[in-house]
Prior knowledge:
The chain is α/β, with parallel strands linked by helices. The protein has helices at 6-12, 57-62, 89-103, 117-128, 146-152, 172-180, 195-198, 201-208, 228-237, 286-301, 306-314, 343-355, 376-386, 403-409, 424-434, 452-459; strands spanning 3-5, 26-28, 30-31, 42-43, 67-71, 83-86, 107-112, 134-136, 160-164, 184-187, 220-224, 242-246, 258-261, 266-272, 275-281, 324-327, 333-337, 361-367, 394-398, 418-421, 439-444. The strands form five sheets. A six-stranded parallel β-sheet has the order 8-9-7-10-11-12, sandwiched between helices.
Amino acid sequence: MIKRTLKQVHEMTDGLNDITPFLSKGIHGVTIDSRKVKEGCLFIPLKGGQVDGHQYVKQALAQGAAASLWQRDVPNPPDGLPIIIVENTENALQQLARSYRQQLNIKVIGITGSNGKTTTKDMTAALLATTYKVHKTNGNFNNHLGLPLTVLSMDEDTEAAVLEMGMSSRGEIEFLSKIAKPDVAIITNIGESHLLDLGSREEIANAKLEIVEGLAKDGTLIYHGDEPLLRNRIKTDFPELNVISFGRTEQNDLFPQTITQGSDSTTFTITCGEKEINYEIPVLGHHNVLNALAAILAAKEFHVVDSAIHEGLSTIQLTNMRMELVEGAKGQKIINDAYNASPTSVKAAVELIEGLSGFENKILVLGDMLELGSQENDFHLKIGELISGDRIDKVFTYGPLAEFIAKGASKTFPSENVRSFQDKQELIDELKTSTQANDIILVKASRGMKLEEVVQALQK
């Protein structure tokens, strides 16, 4: 974590007041949450719509914070305490992170995309950790507050940082990229997430490509080359950029020759020069092979040897609720992929279940996909229509939008094998009654639907 004197923090945040009595006082780490104050940290109060963090400054200092920032337009800063007055505390947090990043001798990998950001982050970090001291984004700390806090939580001797970058509107990825200054940037794919905010996949692609704005001059962009919105735009607008593509097809620099799906792992083969190399990842899904390809390319940019890549892939620990395989109380196998959902990611997950064998029943539990804009009903309906009645046994849906998935599936499924629910407890009760050992159940929906509660209930 950041360790600096108040004199240095004052300079890094463009402090406005005289802090002469406290110049040599040191801070260790940063927090914006008064409930998470640790001894010696810097507390940064933010003005929110409901709560103003400035009202907790004295409490934070009493609990052990070494110092606090204070926004200039907030009246009555406390006297005689280690307070640095700044123009805007949120901007100061970001400026502090920007300055700290520039002071570190570190390689940074920035990752964005509509789907697969977190999984690719976890995979990339696992590969790099075989060779370097690595720091990565924790959870979903990937926005205008989370990324600066992630940067500030890095130790001075960190050698590589893997930073996830999320967004909801244009300009956000550019802003984060200019803080992180990545040496390598990865765009995992372009999906339908954020259609509500951006209006089209073309605009989503434009927003994701903002990651190159902070990329080092000699940096590399690794991108999903099967996506024409990326490939064509990169050729047209970034002809001098060093780029490497991955994907399923031979037009890419790296692609899988074969993919074999196991019951709890996936193996794939790539060609490297004259030889074929086999890899295995302890996660399910062809789409996760693509995430692994992006991670492999990033690792090779930092000269991670192939034996270390094999080691890293075998030890991947994905963030919870991303293709997480757990067991139900009756012995059911449950794939908990309830963290997020879009048409692209749902299709990939359904494709995975359709391709599995050796189970008594293959069951889909699908909830609403949110933030899809005016075409949201059609997106859900098409998902239902794509589900194979020959390879899936039952479809359960939860939520008003997911009811359209059920309607689409009903065109090819017997009516008794498709059920739509608006009450989560009723869905849970039905699943507890109708599923058994050696069934596999996929649970997937947007974060707001909280379908992990279904998984937890089935485990009890």
